[in-house]
Amino acid sequence: MTRKWNRRRFLKATAGGIVGAFTMGPAGVAAGRKKAPNLVFVFPDQMRGQALGFMKEDPVITPNLDRFASEGLVLTNAVSNYPVCSPFRAMFMTGKFPHSNGVLSNCNSNSAPYDCELRQSDRCWSDVLKDRGYSLGYIGKWHLDSPYKPYVPCENNRGKMAWNEWCPPKRRHGFDFWHAYGTYDYHLTPMYWTTDSTRETPIKIKQWGPEHEADLAGEYIRNTGGKYRDPDKPFALVVSMNPPHTPYHLVPQKYVDMYEGKSVEDLVNRANVDLSANSPGGKIARKSIKNYFAMVTGVDDQFGRILNTLKVEGLEEDTIVVFTSDHGNCIGSHNHATKNVHYEESMRVPFIIRWPGRIRPRHDDLLMSTPDIYPTLLDLMGHGADVPRSVQGVSRAPLFLTGKGRRPRSQLYMWAPVGQPAWGRRGVRTKRYTFVISKIPDKAVETTLHDNVKDRYQLRNIATDKPEVVAELTKELEKWLRKNDDPWLKS
Ligand code: CA
Predict the structure, then answer these.
(1) How far apart are the CA of 186 and the centre of ligand 1, in A?
(2) What's the gap in Å between 96 CA and the centre of ligand 1?
(3) How does 268-297 read in b/e, with b if 16+ C-beta sit within 10 Å?
(4) pTM of the prediction?
């Protein structure tokens, strides 16, 4: 079947707004399926790709993810291309890189003068599903709106920077059920705006955020009282948990107790964390690694509850479930506290997708990039022809379904200072190397090259030893930057 034939037939089949006419897709991927699949997309905040028990890297307890991974496709090389909150979230929602979607920094009062927020005019994957007859729910952290004065009165809007902002219904990109907030890191007393809340009337909950959100996800999936979604429509639900983000101590004790008797030396097994007394990274790891892992275990526990609800409701077969994160966490590696750097702990994220009977359980080292998520999901769900031409990500649906398909050579890495889109760090990550060039006004250009095979903890910069690799990867980087129309090339 040709793509043209598929597209014509699809348009004809859906002309009357018929949902679930799954006869199309670039690879005929959804052909023959009668029922429109649901989507449950769960992504905690700051959960690194190493923090999965079955990967045998961090000594972390994740029984639900271990089981889920055995039932799904695990991408062992998935990254967050700009590993910090809002840029990831905007790439996920729009399928475009930051220079194309305008979210070049975290959304807060510092970046607000540069219109750093998700554009209402962008056509997100959720807008497409809305138009194709889906019910859509969003639970948890959104972080895609610029705060404006007078700032919402809440704890994280009272410091030097304001962060939290309400998302008005017109900016929700099709999500008709809403229980979310911009940013708010008080995990034991989280706040939310509900579907009908005004900006002035958020609610606060006395419950650990992920637990509350898993409760609510359960209600949404069960559609308790018929009040969460249209029972006659397929649904897409996003659950965006804030833990394992800072502050790490805001975690139920029962999860900390699961690591009882473990010393910091037992828990930190990465050679790039210097645990000596005066090392900045060592101090961070000593203070927080146990609570970070406890939070990961708590997220795992709550994710398990969501999976169980799908099972009890008989929706496992008809629901695509994705588990990933917006970026990772150094928590002491390379003396770095958190994220927004090129290191593996910051860039690499979990990515597990399960669709029983359709996606064969396995591991794959595909170099998945964040903007690929949008076209891949829509393609899997039978709406590949609806992906706007402006989307820069590439559908990996054929590869997910058959193991065969286009594989990229590299992934882009980037960071730009607030209001300076032509500056900052740009790089590429391949299966072998991580390569980064840093350009900051009035500073010397810095080049970094790590051999991630010979030096898995990225302890050595070999840029001066390997000029031929630097030259090759510079060309590869320039390809990405030209594609993204990135002004960094000329700075
Ligand atoms: Ca984040």
Answers:
(1) 14
(2) 18
(3) bebebbbbeeeeebbbbbbebbbbbbbbbb
(4) 0.93
